[in-house]
Design brief:
Length: 426
């Protein structure tokens, strides 16, 4: 039986899954419901200073779909509009009712007001939460008030906030950073040097979800107008993994990873990269708390297949393999593609991609069709000397394991084909 437990900030979680600070944790009742369904941890929806009025617009959420599947979501929702006093009462009740669940507070205050940060931390201390997440990442609405993402775009502000929080907190501090920066390593380093116990990445990515080309207005339209909002969902996974790797490289702090996790396998990707906790939000907003069952079952099955008994053993160090382009050049070999003719369907997708991307290294050929007397079938064939091992055909091939790369043992770098070096226009 797979053991899904792992320790994060010295708290033993029953599984790696944590609800991110967002609409699914908008009330204590919602957090309780998630705990009852099997979630190991939850981060309350961010609370701000008492005097900050929080008024949302409508509508404020929209999705981007491909093939009837949500791949991204934009929101322009603000932090909690519920009173701090209500939250304090609910957190205390949750603490008593769920002693084995990791309950994390989430707070936000202006980057210039350290007193406001200190007061919020002191209030969280009263609830006996297991950790406090400093929300320095919200990209919309709050930055106009000197809060959210504007705070984690300046290492000096990050340092002041984290130092203030650490000076009064009785529990570990998690610093949630925005990905909307040029150098997130600098921001993570500032948090570490100021005393942060962990880093959370990522918060949502700045964006506009799309345009209704018939109405000629933004999809997330408030009477014809929109705002740059936070984009989340499966499409953000590459950005999240990149930020986990960079923050781990820069700080070696525990990482709470989030961004695009919609299944157990994507959670494993984050763990292997170096994250020690997995936050989920958008997929819950679309599918509900019940997805935890499939995520646990998928994780258990994967661990059994891999001969892994403890989920904690999945927390890896692939972040160490994220390196510079110059290093990759030193490690490169002259790769060529090979085709499994038994499984190739002759769909021509790879040929078109290769031709129209300038490589011209594939064509279709005819083979005898064993299923049809005297008949033939089409399969892809590699033009050996033209193949540069770019992997485009492997990436677009719709048949699993039909195309793959191998080391041709030729000298690297390869010699450019004539159509790269000569004048082909006449």
């Amino acid at each position: 039986m797979a053991d899904l437990r792992l320790s994060f900030l010295d708290f033993e979680m029953e599984n790696p899954w944590c609800l991110a600070s967002a609409p699914p944790t908008a009330t204590g009742e919602l957090m309780a419901s998630a705990f009852d369904k099997g979630w190991a941890a939850a981060i309350m929806k961010t609370v701000g200073p008492v005097e900050e009025p929080i008024i949302n617009v409508a509508p404020r959420i929209h999705t981007m779909k491909k093939w009837n599947r949500e791949i991204a979501m934009q929101n322009i929702e603000l932090i909690t509009d519920r009173r701090l006093s209500v939250w304090l009462d609910e957190l205390k009740i949750l603490r008593k009712r769920y002693p084995k669940k990791m309950i994390i507070g989430s707070i936000m205050a202006p980057g210039h007001d350290m007193d406001a940060w200190a007061k919020l931390v002191e209030e969280m201390n009263k609830t006996k939460v297991n950790a406090i997440e400093l929300n320095l990442g919200c990209p919309h609405g709050m930055p106009e008030r000197d809060m959210g993402a504007v705070c984690s775009q300046d290492p000096l502000i990050i340092s002041k906030i984290v130092k203030t929080a650490k000076s009064v907190s009785k529990v570990p501090i998690m610093t949630k950073l925005t990905p909307n920066v040029t150098n997130i390593k600098m921001m993570a380093t500032a948090a570490k040097n100021a005393g942060s116990d962990a880093i959370t990445v990522i918060n949502t990515v700045n964006g506009i979800i799309g345009i209704d080309i018939y109405k000629k207005e933004p999809h997330l339209s408030v009477n014809g107008y929109t705002a740059i909002g936070g984009v989340s969902g499966n499409g953000m996974k590459p950005i999240g993994l990149k930020c986990v790797a960079e923050c781990k490289q820069a700080t070696d702090l525990p990482i709470s990873g989030c961004g695009g996790i919609s299944s157990w396998s994507e959670g494993v990707e984050y763990l292997l990269m170096g994250a020690g906790q997995l936050q989920v939000c958008t997929e819950v907003m679309i599918r509900g708390f019940k997805i935890i069952d499939g995520m646990n079952k998928g994780l258990e099955k994967y661990m059994a297949e891999m001969g892994i008994t403890k989920a904690s053993d999945l927390v890896g160090d692939l972040y160490k393999r994220v390196t510079s382009f110059e290093t990759l050049l030193k490690k490169s070999s002259s790769e060529k593609v090979q085709v499994n003719e038994e499984t190739c369907t002759g769909c021509n997708i790879c040929v078109v991609a290769c031709d129209d991307s300038g490589y011209d290294a594939l064509k279709l050929k005819s083979l005898p069709d064993s299923n049809r007397t005297g008949g033939t079938r089409k399969v892809a064939e590699v033009i050996y000397d033209s193949c540069t091992g770019c992997n485009l055909c492997v990436a677009v091939c719709p048949v699993p394991n039909c195309m793959s790369l191998y080391d041709s043992k030729l000298p690297f770098p390869y010699e450019l084909a004539d159509n790269y070096t000569g004048n082909t226009l006449v």
